[in-house]
Design brief:
The chain contains 8 helices and 3 strands; from the N terminus they run ααβααββαααα. The chain is mainly α. The chain has a 3-stranded antiparallel β-sheet. β2 and β3 form a beta hairpin. The model has no long low-confidence stretch (mean pLDDT about 85).
Length: about 180
Amino acid sequence: FPANRKELYEEGINALLRKWDSSRGIQRDKVYKPLSIAKKEDLLSQIAWKTFAPGDYFFKAERAKRYISEYIRNLPGANLDDEALQGDSGVVLSNIVAQHGLLTIRAKNIYSFSHLTFQEYFTAREIILVRQSSNEGLQELVEHIFDKRWREVFLLAVSMSPNAEKLVLLLKNEIDKLISKEN
């Protein structure tokens, strides 16, 4: 096993997204097939962020489809027809559930990540790889410094960050603010 969590999660996700298909000879649906591994990871990161941040471990199918539609809409050559996007998002959601096991159906029209660690990993990935440039994600992350629910996201974010100094500085500023409020 890898020495740190980040590498362990990356290997597990790699196995589920890349190796799983090739080892089983799976062919994807027309809508899902053009999504590269990086795009699938970006999509899952977006879903993780939008569900983990408000504390939603379970989410309705319509919500997941809305997030998928938002993502697909921004891809080059996407069909922008709302009805087509809605149908395509359902196909993508079904494929992720059936083919990779990263999302799962918990009850009728209720989904979640198959394991909390996947949701935490993809949330940290969204913060570091997508939102770090605007500081929006990093700032929201540091606001949860004392929230136990965010512990693993913190650890993963620090290990993923190419510039951990920026994150540590924001953490220091947040702690300084809290200390000044108490004095």
